[in-house]
């Protein structure tokens, strides 16, 4: 079957004739004589197209009729009109109709318009299905967490389970592992998603300013307070407050924060008017808080208040299978932002997987963006990576860890070792094909053969 069509016209002979034309082309056709019957059919069946006469009895205005049909089924509508009613047809198109036909109808023209409209609907449905599949498989639209490792999949599932609750969350893990990204995802999937998400870096604000930043202040509260200022706590009212690097918060401020979390109220600096707030608190730290408690630099009562649920992030080294996916995602993001399509050299792709990445995802992203900025011909190569990292680390092959070139070697020796490594990786990437490896390296085939002989790489 080519498609399911609903024909709405109060002329029975016309409906029968059009039905005959369309069924001969392989379409399934339902007919009815008024809008009420059409809407009733929409409740029972799914249609790929509606062909609708604008000259029906005026139960609805023509523009309302088109809008109602589209609302019911998100279905393309082709309107029928007489020669003297083209202005109505144009109004219908402005209100969402796909096309219009003028009576008397030419069967061939009818078939062309119907086929185009149904093909458009088929493509729209495919796009919706693909978008839903991408979101289901990668969760990138909803969570922004890229990767397919078991750790990343478990993290996605945990976020989805705890986001709708209102319990406090403590995110613990090394720097650069996406703690703020997780906090943002928890907010977007929570019941507070329509309210503000306010982030404050507790380690970036000096201790003597943190109180006024959080609580706000009244005019004249201290030197320089020339006006009233709302604090971050009040700005987050009804939503989520994200306390990044809470382990760096001074002890005196920890006491004041604890009281706010317990009572849901506070006094702005210099004010006698109590403020009341309703917030969800999400905290993050790269410190081992129990150790910080033993050292006397973090309060245990605040810890128990903020750690309702704990989310642990894993360093990139413990989930290496995420690295190729992250590399592609960051390259695509860079290309979108700069209207470029950056290709990744196979040797460079291998290089990424051989590094340790102590700075985790943040370091990986910065290296990719820097290398993409200096790459030539929109191809990111291992030479670009060496340039931006200032490193002489090259992987020997895919089964061995990175090999550090001795920085005490002469420059000639370093260049030689780098060239050997590049040749090996190019040959490996091209399955031993010397012609393609030479093209990848920017050499002639004979030039590559000469280097293979010179370095005894047979």
Automatic annotation (TrEMBL):
<dbReference type="GO" id="GO:0043565">
    <property type="term" value="F:sequence-specific DNA binding"/>
</dbReference>
<dbReference type="InterPro" id="IPR003593">
    <property type="entry name" value="AAA+_ATPase"/>
</dbReference>
<dbReference type="Pfam" id="PF00158">
    <property type="entry name" value="Sigma54_activat"/>
</dbReference>
<dbReference type="GO" id="GO:0000160">
    <property type="term" value="P:phosphorelay signal transduction system"/>
</dbReference>
<dbReference type="Pfam" id="PF02954">
    <property type="entry name" value="HTH_8"/>
</dbReference>
<keyword id="KW-0067">ATP-binding</keyword>
<dbReference type="InterPro" id="IPR058031">
    <property type="entry name" value="AAA_lid_NorR"/>
</dbReference>
<dbReference type="InterPro" id="IPR025943">
    <property type="entry name" value="Sigma_54_int_dom_ATP-bd_2"/>
</dbReference>
<dbReference type="InterPro" id="IPR011006">
    <property type="entry name" value="CheY-like_superfamily"/>
</dbReference>
<keyword id="KW-0804">Transcription</keyword>
<protein>
    <submittedName>
        <fullName>Sigma 54-dependent transcriptional activator</fullName>
    </submittedName>
</protein>
<dbReference type="InterPro" id="IPR009057">
    <property type="entry name" value="Homeodomain-like_sf"/>
</dbReference>
<keyword id="KW-0547">Nucleotide-binding</keyword>
<feature type="modified residue" description="4-aspartylphosphate">
    <location>
        <position position="53"/>
    </location>
</feature>
<dbReference type="Pfam" id="PF00072">
    <property type="entry name" value="Response_reg"/>
</dbReference>
<keyword id="KW-0805">Transcription regulation</keyword>
<dbReference type="InterPro" id="IPR001789">
    <property type="entry name" value="Sig_transdc_resp-reg_receiver"/>
</dbReference>
<dbReference type="InterPro" id="IPR002197">
    <property type="entry name" value="HTH_Fis"/>
</dbReference>
<feature type="domain" description="Sigma-54 factor interaction">
    <location>
        <begin position="145"/>
        <end position="373"/>
    </location>
</feature>
<keyword id="KW-0238">DNA-binding</keyword>
<dbReference type="Pfam" id="PF25601">
    <property type="entry name" value="AAA_lid_14"/>
</dbReference>
<keyword id="KW-0597">Phosphoprotein</keyword>
<feature type="domain" description="Response regulatory">
    <location>
        <begin position="4"/>
        <end position="118"/>
    </location>
</feature>
<dbReference type="GO" id="GO:0005524">
    <property type="term" value="F:ATP binding"/>
</dbReference>
<dbReference type="InterPro" id="IPR002078">
    <property type="entry name" value="Sigma_54_int"/>
</dbReference>
<dbReference type="GO" id="GO:0006355">
    <property type="term" value="P:regulation of DNA-templated transcription"/>
</dbReference>
<dbReference type="InterPro" id="IPR027417">
    <property type="entry name" value="P-loop_NTPase"/>
</dbReference>
<dbReference type="InterPro" id="IPR025944">
    <property type="entry name" value="Sigma_54_int_dom_CS"/>
</dbReference>
């Amino acid at each position: 079957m080519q498609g399911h069509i609903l024909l709405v016209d109060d002329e029975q002979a016309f409906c029968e004739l059009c039905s005959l034309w369309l069924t001969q082309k392989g379409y399934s056709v339902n007919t009815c004589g008024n809008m009420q019957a059409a809407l009733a059919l929409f409740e029972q069946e799914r249609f790929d197209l509606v062909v609708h006469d604008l000259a029906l009895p005026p139960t609805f205005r023509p523009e309302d009729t088109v809008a109602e049909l589209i609302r019911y089924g998100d279905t393309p509508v082709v309107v029928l009109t007489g020669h003297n009613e083209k202005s109505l047809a144009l109004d219908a198109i402005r209100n969402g109709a796909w096309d219009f036909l003028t009576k008397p109808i030419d069967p061939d023209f009818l078939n062309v318009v119907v086929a185009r409209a149904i093909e458009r609907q088929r493509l729209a449905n495919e796009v919706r299905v693909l978008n839903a599949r991408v979101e289901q498989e990668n969760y990138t639209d909803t969570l922004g967490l890229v990767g397919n490792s078991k750790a990343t999949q478990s993290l996605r599932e945990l976020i989805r389970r705890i986001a709708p609750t209102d319990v406090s969350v403590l995110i613990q893990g090394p720097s650069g592992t996406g703690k703020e990204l997780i906090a943002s995802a928890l907010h977007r999937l929570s019941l507070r998603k329509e309210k503000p998400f306010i982030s404050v870096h507790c380690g970036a604000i000096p201790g003597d300013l943190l109180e006024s930043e959080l609580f706000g202040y009244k005019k004249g509260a201290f030197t320089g307070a020339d006006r009233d200022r709302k604090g971050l706590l009040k700005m987050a009212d009804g939503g989520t407050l994200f306390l990044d690097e809470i382990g760096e918060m001074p002890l005196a401020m920890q006491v004041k924060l604890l009281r706010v979390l317990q009572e849901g109220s506070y006094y702005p600096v210099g004010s006698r008017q109590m403020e009341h707030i309703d917030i969800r608190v999400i905290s993050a730290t790269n410190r081992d808080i129990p150790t910080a408690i033993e050292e006397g630099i973090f309060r245990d009562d605040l810890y128990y208040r903020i750690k309702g649920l704990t989310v642990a992030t894993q360093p990139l080294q413990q989930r290496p299978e995420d690295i190729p996916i992250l590399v592609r995602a960051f390259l695509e993001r860079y290309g979108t932002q700069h209207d470029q399509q950056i290709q990744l050299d196979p040797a460079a792709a291998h290089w990424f997987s051989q590094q340790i990445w102590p700075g985790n995802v943040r370091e990986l992203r910065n290296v990719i963006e820097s290398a993409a900025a200096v790459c030539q011909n929109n191809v990111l190569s291992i030479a670009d990576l060496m340039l931006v990292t200032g490193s002489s680390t090259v992987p020997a092959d895919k089964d061995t860890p990175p090999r550090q070139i001795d920085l005490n070697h002469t420059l000639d020796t370093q260049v030689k070792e780098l060239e050997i490594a590049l040749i090996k990786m190019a040959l490996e990437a091209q399955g031993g094909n010397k012609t393609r490896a030479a093209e990848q390296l920017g050499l002639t085939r004979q030039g590559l053969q000469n280097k293979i002989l010179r370095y005894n790489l047979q």
